[in-house]
Amino acid sequence: MNRRPTGDLARTATGSDLILTRSFRASAEDVWASITEPERTARWFGPWEGDAAPGRTIRVRLAFEDQAPWSDMRIDACDPPRRLALSATDEFGAWRIELLLTETDGSTRLEFVQHLDSEEQLGEIGPGWEYYLDMLVASRDGSPKPDFDSYYPAMKPYFTDLAARS
């Protein structure tokens, strides 16, 4: 299946923000559960363990990555059911992400934001987040799980060019 990239790039005073959105016919509380409850995150990203609270670090299993490694993620902010901010550092650098929910008339818009220090890896990062957000959609509506091969490398040129266009 050919998928279309949806990401956008916004320049900020401190770098750039990669922004992707998805909409759900559900309450913000229900979508919030999909992005915060470990048995539900396991369906599209991976399970997590630990004592979750702002300022604390949880362990997240990247269940759909090669060898499904565990990674530490710090909870920078948690304002249910509106905002979750996480950060992590790994061999690829620092990851600072936010998940923002807005409910209107029974539908909830999820805005995923990754705060970037550099746009160098955008061609690799963007397709990955498109994949994970479509995994979230599939986990909620029961549609077939997407295949990562439909995202990478097919979407790499879009995200590489995004930096030049913005």
Automatic annotation (TrEMBL):
Q: What is this protein called?
A: Uncharacterized protein YndB with AHSA1/START domain
Q: Please name the source species.
A: Actinomadura coerulea
Protein family according to the UniProt entry: Belongs to the AHA1 family.
Do you know which SUPFAM superfamilies this protein is assigned to? Bet v1-like (SSF55961)
Q: Where is the Activator of Hsp90 ATPase homologue 1/2-like C-terminal domain?
A: 26-138
